[in-house]
Amino acid sequence: MMKFLNRSNKKGFTLIELLVVIAIIGILASVVLASLNSARKKGRDARRIADIKQIQLASELYFDANNSYPPTATWETAISDGGFMTSVPKDPLTAVSYKYILVSATDYRLGAILEDNANPALDSDADGTTTGFDGSGVDCVAAGTPATELCYDVRP
């Protein structure tokens, strides 16, 4: 009987082993999520740039038909109702309209706020500044410094 009581049939994991495994899984999950978040930012930025190019093309079609670019207050409806674009895209994260200002009948500024200030597209954009629009700014409106530039902007 004594032999039976001393016999230990230990099956399963100890609490420390389980905690170590959970900690490792947590660390791996945080690394994967951080990488995924960076990829999502880059994907949204790529979409913003593509949207800006589509809007720019629609604006050129509008110009060809009307001999001027769309007015600031109604630029989205002018492009979509005129049949130049079925619907004007909005920012993929915030669903807010892109920045647009008509400078003159033959000049405008169109911008999108990117999430990654290291995006190489920021080096080749227009960086145009007019009243109410600063293409080198962090929000396309306020002036910014090159290290914090987030406004990708184009002009005709």
TrEMBL record:
It holds the Pfam family N_methyl. One of its GO terms (cellular component) is type II protein secretion system complex. Keywords: Methylation. InterPro entries: Bac_GSPG_pilin, N_methyl_site, Pilin-like. The keyword Transcription regulation does not apply. PROSITE patterns: PROKAR_NTER_METHYL (PS00409). GO terms for biological process: protein secretion by the type II secretion system. It comes from the Bacteria. The keyword DNA-binding does not apply. NCBIfam families: IV_pilin_GFxxxE. This is Type II secretion system protein GspG C-terminal domain-containing protein. It comes from Candidatus Niyogibacteria bacterium CG10_big_fil_rev_8_21_14_0_10_42_19. The lineage of its organism: Bacteria, Candidatus Niyogiibacteriota.
